[in-house]
Sequence to fold (447 residues):
Amino acid sequence: MTEHTWSKSSWRDFPAWQQPNWPDSARLAEALATLGRLPPLVFAGEIRTLKKMLAQAVTGRAFLLQGGDCAEDFANCTAPGIRETLKVILQMAVVLSYAGGKPVIKVGRMAGQYAKPRSADTERVGGIDIPSYRGDMVNSPEPTLAARAPDPERMVKGYYLAAATMNILRAFTRGGYAGLHRVNAWNNEFVKTSPTGRSYERLARQIDNALQFMEVIGFDTDNPIINEASFFTSHEALLLGYEEAMTRQDSTTGGWYDCSAHMLWIGDRTRQLDGAHIEFLSGVGNPIGMKVGPKHDLEELKRIIAKLNPENEAGRLTIITRFGAGQIERYLPGLLREMKGEGFNLVWSCDPMHGNTYTAESGHKTRNFNEILQEIQGFFEIHWAEGTVPGGIHFELTGNNVTECTGGGRNILDHNLAENYQTNCDPRLNAEQSLEIAFQIAEMLRN
Ligand code: PEP
Ligand code: CO
Fold:
């Protein structure tokens, strides 16, 4: 390839996978121009703070907890919808930090997770082929030709909904709601009566006692460390036009940051070394995640990592492995060995969701709780064996009482999936399943 200089639009000279066929280029240009004028959703200073925190996860001094919907739903941008997911993440973080003994970096798949890569461009519905659903920022999930036509105005709408989500997240996390005095109040009504819910209540009481003790000995617990939570946002940087429009130059350092979210990740399907996604993300200063599944080439991965993180800066790059419970032992050890051999500074995170998807007899796309847990266990054990650091976890989850993944404390069976199956895309753990897994991970973290 010829020499080139990065700019926020240099990705346009590279092949871009998984982009929608926007039907009207004038309307697309107009939407992108509108986005380019709108204020950033996050600031460069916050992005740098997250990167510093992630640097701690490289060496095992902190643990990354990333989670949220597979695809956020425009219609679900409501205070209760956002609060319920935030609550589960806060609960999981408290379990991991209190029982697991490590500071937890909380990153939501929230406030912008609106675009999806798909394995097929079209879907056959009632005898005709219609475009696949690609996330609410592109088209609408209803299975009709009209609903599935990509509409660039949806990116502008997505921006405003991401801004609304961001705003309420900031209010919840800074306004007292996420304070440690309220740990017990985050427990969900439907989780409370379960064994996991009870374990959580016990843990919450212990935290209350610890806070009371601190007050008794004269420590003022009315301070931001106790009353506020740090919370960051992330999404897959899939729609490069949108990401380009949200990319701004930081006035203090002169660096470029994609201000659509604090952290961005590259999907398993769009991480080609000479592709547009790697090109775009190589030039923004955000912490970057990269999904790696069974179909990878170790030599290519090394070159991608070198392109994304030429300075080998700790906290810049998180590798999110997603092999599946049955395949992690085949792929992870070699991957860890090779990357350790290169001396790369990486956060290693485990996505136990995307390698464990299957279709139930009822026709629902689902994942089984035990397989999810098995992949996590494999992830920790392989890292221990290889002398590398298991630095984080990546979930698709929701605070609602959905029935999308099988198993868990209530043992959701295939025939229960239809009871409350809500996702537009991949199946998510519900609040109880998420909390149960957090307790299991806390045990592993203590090791
Ligand atoms: C996702 O995280 O929703 C996703 C599509 O993952 P992957 O790129 O790993 O398939
Ligand atoms: Co998904």
